[in-house]
Amino acid sequence: MNKFKLLSLFFASMFVGLIGYITLAYSEYGKVINYGEATRELGHKVLEKRDTIAGSMINGISNPYEISASLVQLEKDLQQLHQTYANTEIHAFLFKELETQALLDSFYFRSMETVDHLDHIVGHTVMRQFILQSLTDLLVSSSTNEPQNQIYGTLLSNISALEQSLNDDSSYINQQALDSATSPLITEETLRLAITFKEIEQQHRQLISKALSPEHITYLDQIEHGFIDLQDYLNRLIASITTALVILFFALCITIAIWRYYELKANAVAYQIAADNAEKANNAKSLFLATMSHELRTPMNGVLGIAQIIREDSKEQNTRKQAQVIIDSGQHLVTILNDILDFSKVEQGKMELESSPFSIPDLTVHLDKTLTSLAEDKGIKLIIKNNVPQNIQLVGDQARTRQILFNLAGNAVKFTEKGQVELEFNMQDTSPATVQMRVTDTGIGIAEDKIEGIFSAFEQAELSTTRKFGGTGLGLSIVKQLVELMGGNISVSSQLNVGTQFVVSIPFELKQLEQQTEQKTVESHGIALSNFTVLLVEDNKINAMVIKKFCESLNLKVDNAYDGLQALDKLKKQSYDLIIMDNHMPHMSGIEAIRNIRQELKLKTAIFACTADVFKEAHDEFIECGANFVLTKPLQKNSLQNAIEQFEQLFQDNRDNRTQDCNTGIPCNVTRLTRYPTDKLPMTEEELSTSNLLSPEHLSHQEKIEYLQSLKAEFDVQIDALIEVFTHSQPDEISPIIQTIKEVSLRFDMSEILMLIEEVELDLNDENMPPAELLQKIINRLTVNSHQAKRLIDKYQQQLKTG
């Protein structure tokens, strides 16, 4: 991560540096544009002045002083521009290599030279005009008697002659030309002025020619193109930096993204490790709770079961009372255990609500039976008021609603020494309908400053409360969470030493009954349950004795098995109406045994799982593998009775199916054939390794694989067919199966299987069903050889791959 941080810091620094550089480049670009505009503007002024002065050769200069003044101003502008860049640095240190300084210097000096040249032209023009005017004045003054136009004509002709004479290469005046051109108007002074005029005229023409020459003015184009090149260079530089900036930005983003990816990945790994550790801790806690629940409930099943048996069987009143004390104490312990488990479920969000119709009397009958005796023992009254119509049923979780009421009413009885405890049920006209349950007592009450904490886990109003009344402090916490889980709310009001009132409001769907449903009992269907047989699979002998006593009290016949394997053996020999199956047993667990009953034996017998595991996951696993119902330890007699009543139709249907098979002439074998797992069979019984069919060296691996695949497919089909046909005890259907097995065995020289088949054929020839033990031996050997064929196929295929 440090490398990514350093790389990100490097990219960020480069990014900031490039932003600064590009900002500086834009600034320098602006300077170049400004200087270029200034030189262009001044250069155009120079060109304008040149053109104006050049035109004076034709039209003459009407106002030379104005032109001189403009040239002076132009010189000042050039000097001001020169001072602007000469006194300060034109560019920053990173752009000193730019030619802006050289271009400006070249422009300045060349422009000053041009302006100075133009100034000389103006001076020569003025002098030329002055001399020409002087000549004109002399000629006019020498010939006053002549007409004005004649004087100008003579002057012009004489000047032309003089100019022609002066054009000669000789250093003296051509006398002939002078004689022919002169007149009385020409004097020596006139001649001197004419010569001076000619010299000035030649200089003037040279200055004009130089001013109009291309090389004298092309520097302006060079300067302009120089600034354009600088602008192009800076444009390209800015574009390059911008591109680099974009690339660097994306590189920075990618680096940050990669950094964040690895950082998030590292955090995710850390979070996952923490979550795994938390999950492990949570699973360990759940496993601990499940284990402790199982270990506590298993002996409690024996304690409470024996106590119930003693209470029902004993004829002595004192003994029955003592047994009831044991039952009450055990139930109290189970309640505490349930509180701990329920709190764990709610805390983990694993508490799931059920939905079924029930009535208020369904709740109060259990409350009345359980709490009335406790209240009477303390000398207080338990009053139950039901203001909900009798024909109204509530649709919701009856068990959790009863748990809420038991907890609140139980606490009320516990903390009330005199007076009464009242439960009141009212229907509130809301949508959805809400049932309000009030639990009011005249007990010790709760101090006002303690009310807020009574719904917290493991807390009671006073520490002395735990010592005096017992409890875990979880009850009200669970009540509040259950009420909120059901979409309701709970409130409490109390006054110390006066009493307490809890108000619970829970929304329910309503169902209206037209008539009362009669309750069914086992005794009302005595014919259907006659000779009702139960296979009890329980490794704990005390629990087995308790459950057996409960069953016998319901006129059920019980056969015991102490693990899953024993249960499977018994089920192969005998049919039962009901199987009661424990889970944690040696040799084979209850879940594995149920799975074998459904998948291998293919029995539809009703199965009640009976376990001390109270978590939903354990119950769901039983149902998924094929159990019909789950009973929870410590088992109560009425719970068993209710479950049997619930599945009475299934028991009757199973009996009818068995009777129908027997009535239609299909023998009903009790013993069943099965296909055992290969790890439970001796592999020494396989005969493929020594088969002559596979021994020839000229057979390729591919040919051997094809032989083995055909054997395995044939054996697997015949095993299933043999198990299915044997169920209906039809010898004529077994014969073709045995014949197919015999043919395959002969092909592969399986002598042991052939010997068993000979015994089977003897029975079939006499039209007798072969013994199950003999057929089971054949199935076992077929299974072993099928498994060996699979191993050999894998071996040869691997050899084909490796060459």
UniProtKB/TrEMBL annotation:
Domain Response regulatory: 533-648
Enzyme superclass (EC): transferase
Reaction equation(s) it catalyzes: ATP + protein L-histidine = ADP + protein N-phospho-L-histidine
Entry keyword set: ATP-binding, Hydrolase, Kinase, Membrane, Nucleotide-binding, Phosphoprotein, Transferase, Transmembrane, Transmembrane helix, Two-component regulatory system
Molecular function (Gene Ontology), one example: ATP binding
Positions carrying 4-aspartylphosphate: 582
Domain of life assignment: Bacteria
Spans traversing the lipid bilayer: 6-26, 237-262
Pfam families: HATPase_c, HisKA, Response_reg
Location(s) in or outside the cell: Membrane
InterPro entries in the cross-refs: CheY-like_superfamily, HATPase_C_sf, HATPase_dom, His_kinase_dom, HisK_dim/P_dom, HisK_dim/P_sf, Sig_transdc_His_kin-like_C, Sig_transdc_resp-reg_receiver
E.C. number: 2.7.13.3
Residue span(s) of domain Histidine kinase: 291-510
GO cellular component assignments: membrane
Protein name, as recorded: histidine kinase
